[in-house]
Amino acid sequence: MVGDAILPAIAARLGALLASPRLRYRPFVVDGTPLGLVDDVRAERLRRLAPDTFAVSDRAIVLDPRLDDADARSAAMSAVADALRQEGALPGWRDERYTVAPSFGMHATFELERGAARYFGVRTYAAHVNGLVRDAAGARMWLARRSPAKAVDPGMLDNLVGGGIRARARVDETLVREAWEEAGIAADIAARAAPAGALQVRRELPDGLQRETIFVHDLELPSDFGPANQDGEAVEHRLVDLCEAARLIGVPGGPDEVTVDASLVVLDFLLRRGAIAPDAPGYLTLEALRYVGAER
Length: 296
What we know:
Elements: H1 7-17, E1 25-30, E2 33-39, H2 40-49, E3 54-56, E4 61-63, H3 70-86, E5 97-100, E6 110-113, H4 117-120, E7 123-135, E8 138-146, E9 157-159, E10 161-164, H5 171-183, H6 187-190, E11 194-205, E12 208-220, E13 234-241, H7 242-249, H8 260-272, H9 283-289
Parallel strand pairs: 1-4, 7-12
Antiparallel strand pairs: 1-2, 3-4, 5-6, 7-8, 7-10, 8-9, 8-13, 11-12
Helix pairs in contact: 1-9, 7-8
C-alpha cells in the first residue's frame, strides 16, 4: 500500500500541471464541426499566414468550405503546417500524420502532421502500457527514460510503452508496434496486454493545447524479462515497486521527473489496483485528477 505521506505531492504536482487552460481559445471548425481549439496568438498567425485557407473571426477559425473532402483538406492543412514549420512555430515535426475526426474510429475529416496537432488543439489518441512484474518481491512496474533527443519531454521517465496512434492505425496494432520498438516485447506477448479504460489529458503547452485520449493497458511480464529498446527513443529502463512509482509521479522536476501522461497512467493503475487506500487523505482529490482532462 502506498504511504499517505506521498499522496499530497502527487495531488499538488498533477493538479498544477493539469490545471484548466488560462488562455482564450476559438473553435477550429471544419465542415460545420468544431474539431480543435486555437488560442488568440496562433489564430492571428493563421489569419496572416493563410487567409485563403481559413476564415478567422473573433469567434472561430473556419476552414474554407470549398475544401470539401478529406484529401483536399489534408493537402491544404499540410501546406499550412509546412509554412508554420518554416516560421519556427512547430518545434516537434514528426513526418507522421494523425487522423482528425469528430470521434475516434470515424472516417478522417482530414489528416494532419503530428507536430501540428497541438497548434490546432485537435484531439489525438495514444496507447500506453503499464509493464508489470509479480514475483516474491511483490508487484513492480517498469519505467523507461526517454531519449534526450526526443522533441517532447526529453530525458523524462515514461511508461514502459506508449505512443501516438497514427492515421489509419488501430489501438491494438499501435500497442504491438510500440511494444517492440520501445521495449523489445515480442508481438505474441504484447497482444496479451489487457485494456484498462481511457484517460483524458487537456493542458496548455508551449506548442499549443494538448487534447489527448490515452488508451490504457496492463501487461504482466515474466520476472526475468529485460526491456531492450529498438529505436533509440528510450535510453534506460527501471523496475520499481509501487511505492516508488507513486513517489516518482509526485516529483516536481529534476532528473527523475515522470511525464504528465505517464504520471496519470501510473496514478490510474494505483487507484484501480487498490494500492492507494480509499480512506487515505486526499483520495477523492486523486480520483478526480483522472477526469480533469475531460471536455468541459
